[in-house]
Amino acid sequence: MATVLQEGAWAETAGLLASISGVGLVTSAWLLVSTVNFTACASAEAAAAYAGLVPLAHESGTSVRGRRQIGHAGNARLRTALYMATLSAARYNPVIRAQYERLRAAGKPTKVARCACARKLLYLAYAVVTKGQEFDPHYREHSG
Fold first, then answer.
1. pLDDT tens, 42-83?
2. Residue 6 in domain
3. 110, burial (CB in 10 Å: exposed 0-12, middle 13-18, buried 19+)
4. What CA–CA distances, in Å, run from 85 to 22, 40, 42, 72, 134?
5. Which residues belong to any copy of the Transposase IS116/IS110/IS902 C-terminal domain (predicted)?
6. pLDDT at 94 over 90
């Protein structure tokens, strides 16, 4: 796995993903293989839906009204890899840490906040790969 990501066709993309704090070798591999180097997903929203990180309503006509939560649909291994990467990113990535702390301060449960951060991490990975530039945690400050 390390050889493919360091010397193979996806080496450049893996290097871009490695610039995101919290995304390591295993997460990079799952992202690249599952999304075929992000060519299988037309947008970041489509990638999040593929990973199963979008909240879905639990409804059945007018009789069942459940709360929105992520379902079991989607690529469970990719979702797990992103969730586990979020454990590190919530400590070392300033963008993910800020979102995690904001959600926890708003009273969201730990797992809800981590799933939201996993989705944010996927959005960051999609942006880094599609734009072809390394992750910059101060991007919003520079862009005005």
1. 999 999 999 999 887 766 666 666 677 777 788 999 999 999
2. no
3. exposed
4. 5, 22, 23, 19, 18
5. 16-101
6. yes
Does residue 27 lie within any of the structural domains?
yes
Whether the predicted model's global pTM rises above the 0.70 cut = yes
CB 9 within 8 A of CB 32: no
Nearby residues of 67 by Cβ (< 8 Å), 6 or more positions away = 58
pLDDT of residue 57: 73
Of the pLDDT bands very low, low, confident and very high (cuts 50, 70, 90), residue 1 is low
> Is 34:15 a contact under the CB 8 Å cutoff?
no
Q: How many domains does one find in the chain?
A: 1
DSSP 1-31: -HHHHHHSTTHHHHHHHHTSTT--HHHHHHH
**Which 3 state secondary structure label does DSSP give 39?**
coil
Domain ranges, residue 84? 11-136
Does residue 38 register a pLDDT over 70?
A: yes
Angle between helices 110-131 and 44-51 (to 10 degrees): 140
